[in-house]
């Protein structure tokens, strides 16, 4: 990438047939729909892609399928997290060889009781950086149970060549982003937030240059970022207020199931199936989700019709 990535970099859902098999054609349609939503990049194989229910063979299939199908129309970020440094390195090398623009990694963890010391975390990211020449995004999320302090993140940005992007979705993300940007300076190329942009305005105030949401409503959230960065803060706030009821419902009630449910309702994919032990949305929650989505006239709701 010649220019730093900014804007909205949503996570692509992984569609399954009703019997649980990966829906390859549905995956292609998901990617096409997201490009039509006007995204700045697409992230695949992330937590909201249900990466934790995919086999290694399915991961490899989906990574190749996504990168070949997108074919450079937008940058693709491949999530390569794993506790094993060797596997994380192998995944990153494979992603780069197939054309990934960036990889995203959580720190190594296996439950809250199996986390390396800070030096082990640094060495983990260093090994991946040594193996690739594309940027690495550090995903700082409470899911891992790993505390990544601002001094540690700044150290990684300064000492590890390709570590330059950060997705911060911890509690009080805005304060952490502000501290990271102040301490890291030019080494913090891409400070992003996550969590479906539920704290986006505060995070933009703190200096975030973009957001990584789901694929549910990127065409509605992207203007919040672009207007804010253009200095039109009142316009950004107005747009964010418009989006917030749906963002909140997704974040607090639906999780990763929201995007798949709307994509299925709009004909992007044939099924909103999630693999066990995940369960489908209740009809009550689904009904409210679709009502809120219709109010915003989302692209995904009419894309396949």
UniProtKB/TrEMBL annotation:
EC main group: lyase
Any GO molecular function: 4-hydroxy-tetrahydrodipicolinate synthase activity
Pfam families, alphabetized: DHDPS
GO cellular component: cytosol
EC number: 4.2.1.43
Keyword Lyase carried by entry: yes
Keyword Lyase belongs to the record: yes
Residues holding pyruvate: 212
InterPro entries (alphabetical): Aldolase_TIM (IPR013785), DapA-like (IPR002220)
Coiled coil (UniProt feature): none
Record's keyword terms, sorted: Lyase
Family (UniProt): Belongs to the DapA family.
Name of the protein described by the UniProt record: L-2-keto-3-deoxyarabonate dehydratase
Origin species: Albidovulum aquaemixtae
Gene name per UniProt: araD
